[in-house]
Amino acid sequence: MLYQQRPTWAEISLTALKHNYLTIKNHLTAGAQLMAVVKADAYGHGAVECSRALESIGADWFGVALVEEGVELRRAGIVRPIFCLGGFWRGQAENVVKHDLTVAIFRLDQAEELDAKARETGRIANFHLKVDTGMGRLGMRLDEVADFARSLEPFHHLKLDGVMTHFADADGDDPAYTEAQMARYDEAVRILRDLSFDSSWRHLANSAGIHAYPQSHDNLARAGATLYGLSRDVLSPKLEPFDLRPVMSLHSRIVMLKTVPAGTPLGYGCAFTTKRESRIATIPIGYADGLRRAHSNNGRALLRGSFAPIVGRVSMDLTIIDVTDAPNVEVGDEVILIGEQDGLRITAEDLAEQVGTISYEIVTGISARVPRVHANS
Predict the structure, then answer these.
(1) Taking CA 330 as the corner, what is the angle to CA 321 and CA 289, rounded to the nearest 5 degrees?
(2) pLDDT digits (tens, 9 = 90+) for 202-245
(3) What CATH number is given to the structural domain containing 200?
(4) Does 240 map to a domain?
(5) Closest CA to 146 of 194, 211, 183
């Protein structure tokens, strides 16, 4: 068997991605639009390819974290509205205007810079005011909203076209905190309307908010992790989950097979010793690819319809698995680290639970040296 490159890759199902977007969109209240959050290279799935697929089915908005991410999508031909969730850094206003990006603003100096750049080109720049209702990261405090709005009067090339906030605990057990955030958000919108700012777009809900708080959908909602089929550590377990499909699967192939006697130490630090005569396989994937070192002696792979445990320490480029109980294993056999085979499944949520993190970190941590293969399957 010939390979043009190292046989380790991630498959991205654009069919599953489209299914998830439409499933979530259909859950929204009537008239609400859905922003597909494709920040961090679409959570590791490939922002350009995923955005093109979603635009082909009529995605309403795209959400990115950085201006650089928005520029990348524009240069790739994406024409739908792009929203920069994290605002912009000093010096980036020119690209915001040039590439028709909509940004979050939460400081007056941002408004000043954006207005100046829009004025230079004779354009009007849209922005959404980000209000901190309880997340505590980015956003203007509620008691600052009125003064900020009054300060916009001399900026004739800016349009306050939206008001947003972000939920901190929408997947939690107690709704009180999220309900308080919604109340603060409603107060911010009221303050702006009293000052004659009637924004086109109002958005609060993230994936968990879409799922658990239909009253928060307003006319725009933002779906991130659920878009990629992640749900178990994203949504409230008390409610029926969305019908989502995993979008990413992670694959490699066996490059070395050996039979070793009982008592053989394996890997760095001799962290595993065989207890029986064992069939040991090496696969070309490691922590530089995003397979966490914490999976050492604490993970498993799928091949030939059975699970094979990871043994010894995951190293930078290679990982060892015990295939003693897998039938008829050969060099070149495909190994699945995330995905499904013969009714057995390993999910990103499973990997996250094993190492004490969340599924978001698993998929975004699959490094750029792992090729993404995008397919309508």
Answers:
(1) 45
(2) 999 999 999 999 999 999 999 999 999 999 999 999 999 999 99
(3) 3.20.20.10
(4) no
(5) 194
Residue 185 sits in the same domain as residue 276: no
In the chain the beta strands, taken as DSSP E runs, fall at 9-13, 33-37, 61-64, 82-84, 102-105, 125-130, 158-164, 201-203, 220-223, 248-253, 256-260, 265-266, 272-273, 278-283, 300-303, 306-309, 319-322, 334-341, 344-346, 372-375
Instruction: Please identify which of the residues 18, 21, 25, 39 carries the catalytic annotation.
Output: 39
**3-state secondary structure at position 310:** strand
* Integer Rg of the chain from CA: 24
pTM equals 0.96
Instruction: Copy the structure tokens of residue 82.
Output: 């792009």
Token pair 């070793």 is found at 260
Q: At 249, phi and psi to the nearest 5?
A: -130, 150
Q: Within 10 A of 4 (CB to CB), how many other CB atoms are there?
A: 5
Q: Is residue 355 part of a domain?
A: no
Domain residues for the domain of 122 are 14-228
**Residues 165 and 270 occupy one common structural domain:** no
Summarize pLDDT for 40-98 with one digit per residue, the tens. 999 999 999 999 999 999 999 999 999 999 999 999 999 999 999 999 999 999 999 99
Question: Is 39 assigned a catalytic role?
Answer: yes
Amino acid identity for residue 331 in this structure: V
Boundary of a domain, candidates 180, 198, 228: 228
User: What's the token pair of residue 42?
Assistant: 């679409």
Name the domain count of the chain: 2
